[in-house]
UniProtKB/TrEMBL annotation:
Keywords: ATP-binding, Nucleotide-binding, Transport. PANTHER family: ABC TRANSPORTER ABCH.1, IMPORT ATP-BINDING PROTEIN. This is ABC transporter ATP-binding protein. It comes from the Bacteria. Gene3D superfamilies: P-loop containing nucleotide triphosphate hydrolases (3.40.50.300). Residues 14-247 form the ABC transporter domain. Pfam families: ABC_tran. The lineage of its organism: Bacteria, Pseudomonadati, Pseudomonadota, Alphaproteobacteria, Caulobacterales.
Amino acid sequence: MTTKVHGNHGDFAIEAKGLVKRFKSGKSFVEVLKGVDFDARHGDLTMVMGPSGSGKSTLVATLSGLLRPEEGRVDMLDVDDLWKMSSGKIDKFRLDHCGFIFQGFNLFPALTALQQVEVVLKFQGLSSGDAKRRATAALEEVGLGPRLHQRPTILSGGEKQRVAIARALAKDPQILFADEPTSALDGENGQIVIRLLRRAATEHGAAVICVTHDPRLEAWADRVIKIEDGKIVDDQRHTPDPNAVLASHH
Ligand SMILES: Nc1ncnc2c1ncn2[C@@H]1O[C@H](COP(=O)(O)OP(=O)(O)OP(=O)(O)O)[C@@H](O)[C@H]1O
Ligand SMILES: [Mg+2]
């Protein structure tokens, strides 16, 4: 008997084939993803790099059930062909298994750091007590124990991004999507963030998919995938250096 650890797709958390995404532009269509095959493994920090407009955010959106591709399929965890499910089931899947971190933090202005994290856990069905315990632990893990009761307006950019990371990690997601998570941060805060993503992969076994422009982040990656003009042009495995330093240029 074999033990099923990660669903039907072995080590792959995501396996996508032939993704095509088109957007309407006047009377014609622009093809933004031109038949992309993509996979990502549990425990890997997979970096997706490429020029502005190459389709990185579009790829993440089609992989994560946010944007329906015109062609292709996405297998994730124990789901065969994500886009065949109803939108309600896709939303539920995303809530249960995926964490998201974006450049703009996406925090609720009125909520404290603790509440930002609790709200997601309660929405997932945890009791108030459990949500509070898990949220506190997640914020402590990112070094925000002393900031639990503060609202976004008085938090620094680096602290806000750490709240967003705690919110994404609190549910212990099997897949973590990060789109330019360090681009609004200085070197020191960028380093804190990329180390937390590294740790989510290594210690929590998450498949971390991180879109970035910053070649300095490659030092932490297990794999670097390059995309240009809607096509994967390079895919290299890499030995991460968890002690790499993201020097700040001032
Ligand atoms: N909803 C949309 N409607 C029309 N065109 C879109 C839409 N979303 C994205 N595009 C176009 O698709 C292309 C790829 O966009 P995408 O956001 O995926 O690029 P990106 O690689 O993430 O770029 P950046 O590094 O600037 O974030 C761009 O030319 C963009 O203008
Ligand atoms: Mg983008």
